[in-house]
Amino acid sequence: MLSAAGAMLFALAAPLFAQQSATDRLIASELASSQAYETLAHLTDEIGPRLSGSKQAAAAVEWTTERFRAWGIDIRNEPVMVPHWVRGREEAQLVSHMDQKIVLTALGGSVATPENGITAEVVEVNDFDELQALGTKVKGKIVYFNNPMDMELVRARHSFEAYRKAVAFRGAGASRAAEFGAVAALIRSVGSASLRTPHTGSLHYDPKQPKIPAAAMTAEDAMLIDRLIKRGQKVRMHLVLTPRELPDVKSFNVVAEIKGSEHPEEIVVIGGHLDSWDLGTGAIDDGSGVAMVMETMRLIKQLDIHPRRTIRCVLFMNEENGLRGGKQYFEDHKSEKHIAAIETDAGAAAPTGFTTTLNGDALSAMDARMQSSLSKLGAARFETSKETGADTSFLVAAGVTGFSLIPDPLHYFDYHHTPADTLDKVDAHELALDSAAIAALAVAIADGGV
Amino acid sequence: MLSAAGAMLFALAAPLFAQQSATDRLIASELASSQAYETLAHLTDEIGPRLSGSKQAAAAVEWTTERFRAWGIDIRNEPVMVPHWVRGREEAQLVSHMDQKIVLTALGGSVATPENGITAEVVEVNDFDELQALGTKVKGKIVYFNNPMDMELVRARHSFEAYRKAVAFRGAGASRAAEFGAVAALIRSVGSASLRTPHTGSLHYDPKQPKIPAAAMTAEDAMLIDRLIKRGQKVRMHLVLTPRELPDVKSFNVVAEIKGSEHPEEIVVIGGHLDSWDLGTGAIDDGSGVAMVMETMRLIKQLDIHPRRTIRCVLFMNEENGLRGGKQYFEDHKSEKHIAAIETDAGAAAPTGFTTTLNGDALSAMDARMQSSLSKLGAARFETSKETGADTSFLVAAGVTGFSLIPDPLHYFDYHHTPADTLDKVDAHELALDSAAIAALAVAIADGGV
Lengths: 450, 450
Description:
The structure is a homodimer.
Chain A (H helix, E strand, L loop, with lengths): L3 H16 L2 H12 L2 H12 L7 H16 L3 E13 L3 E5 L5 E2 L2 E3 L11 E8 L2 H7 L7 E4 L5 H5 L3 H21 L4 E5 L25 E4 L1 H12 L5 E6 L2 E15 L4 E11 L9 H20 L6 E8 L7 H10 L3 E7 L7 E6 L3 H16 L5 E4 L8 H5 L3 E7 L4 H4 L12 H21 L2
């Protein structure tokens, strides 16, 4: 209910409001009345971790669908079969060192050790060359890839570059070690902060090699083992990992749409992923991305904005351990005309801008068009990149112009894939700025193309 | 082996060296060749957590004893019976909220829940007044004391004051809640940083009340429950804690001594505690204190310094969950003439000075005497306090002058009592500065009194 004074103010402001561009209206509304944080709070606090195949992932599909419906936005659930990997016990001790506990977490997709574990010597290598040089000397042993993140890169805010370098061993380490007969693989958690904090994430088994269990130790535990080995000591570990790969589960991409007023057949996708890792509650990865794109849709609808092209919001399922939702969306929709794909899966810190597959004159033009609206959000920097997000990578590979929101990356990998990825890491105002940046770019492209 | 040039240099420098005060020689040697870090590395990396009654605590007694012996220092093990509390499973889920996992750790000394746990509503109170006001309304429920540390105090480096305020609920919360029929008690981890990091610590049961299980949730989990309850929701938790209190174990204070050259019967005690909590490896609490006082003894011996009074180094057992070592030392030695007790149990950051029970003119005199040696370590600040350490509190209560080393406290409670209390949190140079400060003060008092 508006008070009389409020109503009058509203009446006076309305014509002025109408003269504003759609993007400016979106930004002003978003900053004044963002509900992104409430959306995120529900996903994280009330539903919790949303690993593919879990009841929480199913609840997230149901709840987000219901929200769109309540906002009066067209919504559909598009089926996708997803993996159902379930973490089990994860325990390790150094039997060579007073049974000292080692804190670690299974990598997503890892096979299990026998129920009562394995015991073997730990051999440390810095990279694949060193592994190759050792060759079959690692047979019957546990290979530990000593892969700290390059913190200079992180401090220079090239966090994703540092991540890509360190994460190579998470993805391929197990199979590379298995090739030479190793019985398990360990990495140092790929992260930029630790209070004995494990960072999980997916591995990829090479079908040509035997599958061996793999885990990420915390930075502290990884450094401990490095010190012991550098002191010339033999380190023997007892390792128990009991994850299970259950049968695939039917899940859904949640697809909401506001039809274009002039070119409904031309589509601007905005998306984040609804699933999360199981250790935290997926606040920065990627509940916040989901909240931003949902908020964009809510605002466009509520402000009665009618973009010329269709804006389609996709909440992808299974980005983390399979990318099945992204693939399925592409399979189902590749014949449609996608104008752009805007993905947000890099946290919820204050926005700095976007990476985009645009370059040259097209990049300059986009930059020029968006300066006035995005600069007030601190989000006006456009930078060319070949990669603008995992879920939309199939669209981008097929030639669709990609965009990825870049929140300040300084602390992203402090929390990413850890138990500490929780709501308290997100600032409501920064999340609103992010949401406004997504909304502004989406509507600008829907109206003006790329 | 000295080279010829080195030997000549040494011969030339020796008379100059002899003219230096003993404290200056200690400081110079300590900063040039500290072995404190090596001592700490062994305690933490090779032995690990040293909870009273554990095999690691016994190994720490044995290894430190052997070190003193190797250094040619008089050493004895003084028996003390200690509690043997063993952590079990610690699991919690919010059955009201999709079985969301709650990360927590049992408080030291807590009794167990039944093997398959308890399930009850969580009731939040901010303090004992609110608990009192609820009274028997908490019957059958889990009481959660919402006790965040005052971070303004921490940032102002009054970390210990912030700790004392927050920790009141850890100590007394369980029994106060039990008085009104609660079935378990929870606190927010008493700490100044968290990446879903539990901080353990002792509770004290009131013998007049039933013993109920108690645990510390991580800050993230505590804030989650606070948010849910503030949204008006009922929060129900399933809680499993299976710690066990085993029979007391015979352990030891490790007591090393360098006899005074003039007044061997007058004793300056320097001490830290050899036991630690079980979650981390007790690097800052209190492996570093042990390393500092051991290093002081090693250097005095090696530099052939002969203080006028006896310097006695006590590595106390069971500071964390019983204080039995401190009590036993006092019982065994209260008839002796103690001149001062210097305790170091506040971490290993760069030294800032000492708290002391001295005040008035005696404080000023001590301050004046120590300025020239301690100021080069940044450790020249003396401040009056009634409390200068737990293990030596019995001596101090009996009138002995107390001193406590104060390393920069800013980050102490980030790691204190957590799994992240590990060697990597200690800087070798800062630890050497601390060791030098202890050595300088100990020898100055042994020579010149208080």
